[in-house]
Specification:
With 187 residues, the chain is α+β, with helices and mostly antiparallel strands. The protein is built from 5 helices and 7 strands; from the N terminus they run E-H-E-E-H-E-E-H-E-E-H-H. The protein has helices spanning 22-25, 84-95, 140-149, 157-170, 176-185; strands at residues 15-19, 33-50, 61-79, 104-113, 119-127, 151-152, 155-156.
């Protein structure tokens, strides 16, 4: 995927990346700053079946995606513009693996930094609703059952859920949907 890096930079010349799940606690790239942020028009949801990272084809797990509607509090990482191409290559390899099912679409979305009120454009990986692994809104019991038993290349689905909840909690963010799943899964 060829991208004009300059078109992804904010007016300040830096590159911003929005994290709403595992990127919060495991970004995997160098960054100059981390800000609490609000993205409107999308919400965090377990809406993508995982046959590799958090499950297997025989016992699928689930991963988070940004799905349409609502709002999502998360983290924005500020990356100096000179490191934008390298960071984007890493993120695309992580979120858009070559030869794998395209479960996310990379988007440049406007969001607000909650610590200083600035609005910046940030890269976000949004759930691909046309992907066969997109499961949309499922009953909490279905999600909890899959998460409780899912385990893939990146570890257990339970760990993914609880790491996300713990790090959101450290930021003062409550996600009632994830909390309802966690109640059924149990620590």
């Amino acid at each position: 995927m060829t991208t004009d890096i300059a078109s992804l930079l904010a007016p300040d010349g830096d590159f911003y990346v929005f994290a709403y799940g595992s990127l919060i606690w495991r970004p995997g790239f160098d960054h100059a700053a981390r800000h609490p942020a609000l993205l409107r028009g999308f919400h965090r949801r377990f809406c993508l079946w995982s046959h590799r990272y958090r499950g297997t084809p025989e016992r699928p797990g689930l991963v988070l995606g940004l799905d349409r509607g609502g709002a999502c509090r998360g983290v924005v990482f500020r990356v100096p513009g000179r490191a934008a191409a390298e960071t984007l290559a890493y993120l695309d390899a992580r979120e858009l693996p070559d030869g794998g099912e395209v479960v996310y679409r990379r988007r440049l979305l406007p969001l607000m930094l909650l610590d200083d009120g600035r609005r910046v454009p940030a890269i976000a990986y949004v759930a691909n609703r046309t992907c066969r692994l997109y499961c949309g809104k499922q009953p909490t019991e279905v999600l909890a059952r899959a998460i409780d038993t899912g385990h893939g290349q990146m570890g257990s689905n339970r760990d993914y859920l609880f790491n996300t909840l713990d790090h959101l909690g450290e930021m003062g963010v409550r996600d009632r949907g994830l909390e309802a799943i966690a109640t059924l899964v149990g620590r």
